[in-house]
Specification:
The complex is a heterodimer of chains A (215) and B (119).
Chain A lengths: L1 E10 L2 H16 L2 E7 L6 H11 L5 E7 L4 H8 L3 E6 L8 H11 L5 E6 L16 E7 L6 H4 L1 H6 L2 E5 L11 H11 L5 E3 L8 H11 L1
Parallel strand pairs in A: 2-5, 2-6, 3-4, 3-5, 6-7, 7-8
Helix pairs in contact in A: 1-4, 2-8
Chain B lengths: L2 H18 L4 E10 L6 H12 L8 E7 L2 E4 L4 E4 L15 E4 L4 E10 L5
Helix pairs in contact in B: 1-2
Classes of the chains: A alpha/beta (215), B alpha+beta (119).
The complex binds guanosine-5'-triphosphate (GTP), magnesium ion and zinc ion (ZN).
Chain lengths: 215, 119
C-alpha cells in the first residue's frame, strides 16, 4: 500500500454550474432572456414581476415561481394571464440547476421573450447557485434596513441590477441612503441601483428599459 | 443551510477521483472553505461521515482549511480582514475593496491509498 497525493481543485458547485450552462445555452437558442430574481421573503418579488411584465408591453413573459410551499404567487400571476409554473422545494432554501432544467419542459416556451425566475425568499443561498440565468436581479427594500449590503455581501456582489423597493415607505423609516449605496458600491461598482415602489409603480419604467437594452 | 446536497457533491468528487486513480480508499480530503461561504464546517463534517459510509471515502480524514474574507485598502495599500458590518480599513477608515470574499468552497486535493504497482 502507498499513499498518493492527488490535486483536485474542483469547486463543489461545478456540477450545478455545468447544468446551468446547459440551460443557458438552450434558453438562448429559444430566444429567451432569463432573469434570476432574488431577495428576502416579502421584499416584493412577485409584486415587482407584475409591474415589470406590464411595463414590458409586447414582450412575451414567462415566470417560474420558486417557493418552499404553496402556489399563492402562481395563482396571483395566472389570474393576470401570465404563464407561470410553480416549483415547491419542500424545504430547500434555494433553486438549483436541476430543478430549473426539469421545470422548463412544463413551461412550454413557444416564443422568444423574457423568463423571470422568482427564487426562494432568502438573501443568502440563492446567490450561490447559478440556474441558467442571463443575469441576477436583487430586490431589497427600505424596510429591511440600510445595512444589508454589509451583512449579506454575496447577493449584492453577484447582482447585475439592484432594486430598492418600497420607497413609498421612506417617510416612516430611518433609512440612510448613503450608507446603503456606499456598501453596495464597494462590492459592486457597476450595477444600477434603482429606487422603485411596486405599490405606486414608481421607478419601474427605468427597470424595464434596462431589461430591454440587455435582451 | 444547504450542507447536505453540497456534501453529497463533495463525496461524489472525491469518490470519482479515487476511481479514476484506481484507489480503493481515500485517506484524507483537503477542503477549502471561505469564512463567508455560509457553509458550516461541522455540518459538512457530520454529513461527510454519513454520506461517505460504504464508499471508498469512508473513514477519510476531512481537513478543512478556512479562508477569511479580506479587503484591500487603496490608501494604505494593504490587506485587512473584513470587519463585521463594515468595509472600512481599521487604520485609516478608507473603504476597502474585496480581495477575497471568503466564499471559497472547493476540494484542493485528496490523499489516496493505492496498491503498490508491480514493477
Ligand atoms: N408599501 C409597499 N408595499 C409593498 C411594495 N411592494 C410589495 N409590497 C407588499 O409587500 C408584501 C409582500 O409582497 P410580495 O410581492 O408578495 O413579496 P415577495 O418577495 O414575492 O414575497 P415572498 O414570495 O413571500 O418571498 C405584500 O403585502 C405587498 O403588497 C411597495 O413597494 N410598497
Ligand atoms: Mg413572491
Ligand atoms: Zn487604510
Amino acid at each position: 500500500m502507498s499513499n498518493k497525493d492527488v490535486e483536485i481543485m474542483e469547486n463543489i458547485y461545478s456540477e450545478n454550474d455545468r447544468i446551468a450552462e446547459r440551460i443557458q445555452k438552450s434558453l438562448h437558442e429559444q430566444g429567451i432572456y432569463a432573469i434570476n430574481v432574488m431577495g428576502a421573503p416579502g421584499v416584493g418579488k412577485t409584486s415587482s414581476l407584475i409591474k415589470l411584465i406590464k411595463g414590458l408591453n409586447g414582450v412575451k413573459a414567462y415566470v417560474i415561481e420558486g417557493d418552499i410551499e404553496s402556489d399563492i404567487d402562481t395563482k396571483k400571476l395566472k389570474a393576470l394571464d401570465i404563464e407561470t409554473v410553480q416549483i415547491n422545494t419542500g424545504g430547500a432554501c434555494h433553486l438549483d440547476g436541476i430543478l430549473i432544467e426539469n421545470t422548463l419542459n412544463d413551461l412550454g416556451l413557444n416564443e422568444p421573450g423574457v423568463l423571470f425566475i422568482e427564487n426562494i425568499g432568502n438573501l443568502v443561498c440563492p446567490a450561490e447557485f447559478n440556474i441558467g440565468e442571463n443575469c441576477k436581479m436583487l430586490i431589497t427594500t427600505v424596510a429591511e434596513g440600510d445595512d444589508k449590503p454589509y451583512k449579506y455581501p454575496l447577493a449584492f456582489e453577484k447582482a447585475a441590477i439592484i432594486l430598492l423597493n418600497k420607497i413609498d415607505l421612506l417617510p416612516y423609516l430611518d433609512f440612510d441612503m448613503d450608507y446603503y449605496i456606499r456598501g453596495i458600491r464597494v462590492l459592486n461598482p457597476n450595477a444600477p441601483i434603482i429606487k422603485v415602489s411596486a405599490k405606486t409603480g414608481a421607478g419601474f419604467d427605468e427597470v424595464c428599459e434596462w431589461i430591454q437594452s440587455r435582451m | 443551510m444547504h450542507e447536505y446536497p453540497l456534501t453529497k457533491q463533495l463525496v461524489k468528487i472525491v469518490v470519482d477521483a479515487a476511481k479514476s486513480h484506481n484507489a480503493a480508499k481515500v485517506s484524507a480530503v483537503r477542503l477549502v472553505l471561505g469564512e463567508s461561504s455560509g457553509i458550516i464546517p461541522d455540518s459538512v463534517g457530520m454529513y461527510f461521515d454519513m454520506i461517505a459510509a460504504g464508499t471508498p471515502a469512508e473513514g477519510a480524514k476531512l481537513e478543512i482549511r478556512t479562508v477569511k474574507a479580506e479587503m484591500h485598502c487603496p490608501r494604505c495599500r494593504k490587506d485587512f480582514p473584513r470587519p463585521r458590518f463594515s468595509f472600512a480599513c481599521p487604520d485609516c477608515g478608507t473603504l476597502g475593496s474585496p480581495k477575497s470574499l471568503g466564499d471559497e468552497f472547493y476540494v484542493e486535493s485528496v490523499l489516496l491509498e493505492t496498491e503498490e504497482e508491480e514493477e
